[in-house]
């Protein structure tokens, strides 16, 4: 990661805790305001970022973030105008040690923390019961451990799925609040409500449930009361909220096509603090500008200039007596998309510059609409993440070992994790006078197969690059060639700078996503398919009965451009670039059919299920005007440990400017 300048100048954010009912609080809810007390006065809008706990090659259960990374990341966050880092669970001791050290070294520009405590596992989903004693006991213990971790008083052993160690750093001077729980599965929570309809109302010392609270809300009120009790024993009070998301918001959405997206309503208004908990509570939402579909279908929202911000404002108005904070939002920078959103804010298919511009606009909009804060999801790209429209195309237990630019969930970070395990160049041809190419070299990394092509004299106006990972497959020859039968094609128009990726019908991954009619697919030669992703299934609007069609993304639309991050015209989605006679191409592994390039595994759909065959390497064919050059194969070694380099994404300064603007520095 590049060197980070000193934190931006501005008024101090040094904490100035106040006393209330004998408890010390650095922040509290005050009507619709979330107030952070600083020596320069009260701050009432918090720009934050969500920090996961993985690095490339790892899954969340691993401890993989180093102390040096935490140290560098905290400096970078502050430089980007971020004032709060939200974590979902207890992080390793190094997080708290480095945060305390950073804040002590930068007392006027500290980084506050919003501590999360997720549900332990998914037992409540399997049992359909939040009140199950094992579920409740495990979560109460995790809450207790978290309060000890933030004050540097925890020592516990490592268990499967649980971080162990000794926590000695006290970060409570910068503890802005708590977010407990997880995005609840609506069907499981609804089942829990039915099983526990007679659950008693909560009248705790610190939190209570209202008379109209559901059993789920009562259970959450009880856990918030537990947590408050642990903190009050230390003489502290911080705002506590439970995690909620648009799927289980308290509003009704009769135009929402998917039943599960409006099945369950959770309302923070039904879980209230008592006078013994002066820091209060707030409403917290994970809310994105592209999902659920009601954002595109509700007439009241569509009548507004910005349906997403109008939706957030409706949430704020619903919670009129408490602050409303958006604790997850963002759009990913990725080639692949998984859903369409109003105003072009889709779930992917954005360059880094475009994505950060959108998130900056959203952060400003949240502040102007009276929300209490916005936490961008997320700080760093995480390779282990999956999304619904590519998950069936991949070998699941090795996803963290390579980066797929077609999977949008891997591109939400402000900090890129670029593939860095680049092989030495392989010469595929070096023949003066060759045509259509005189020289071709290839390299591979965890994201792409790279080709550097020196075109021959009188270069063609168009060219097809055939890519063949499984030479044994048979089928329709490449158009314009009598013999070659590659499994994937990059068809490039070198004059108009347009291109399209195709995959052999036998390897088309959309076969794994259900029955998709031919009428929904883009044009392609016989035996081939345009490389596409499903972004929405056919559905019906309940309130009107209107039938909505399948929606697709032409993810194989090959953008011409530069991807060198030092170039001002960079487009992180570009896959080819022609500069004179020099052609550069990078091919995402998924576009050649790979389900796991780290083991050479190519996905071969059979009866709607993923099977794999091992590739001996990728043969390359360059075809133009009836001439074929058969090259390769490109080979590489299997890997079990990837390499990555960190980089602040292009356009991140736009988010920085917005974060500084909404807080006046």
From TrEMBL:
InterPro entries: GH. Gene3D superfamilies: Glycosidases. This is Uncharacterized protein. It comes from Paractinoplanes tereljensis.
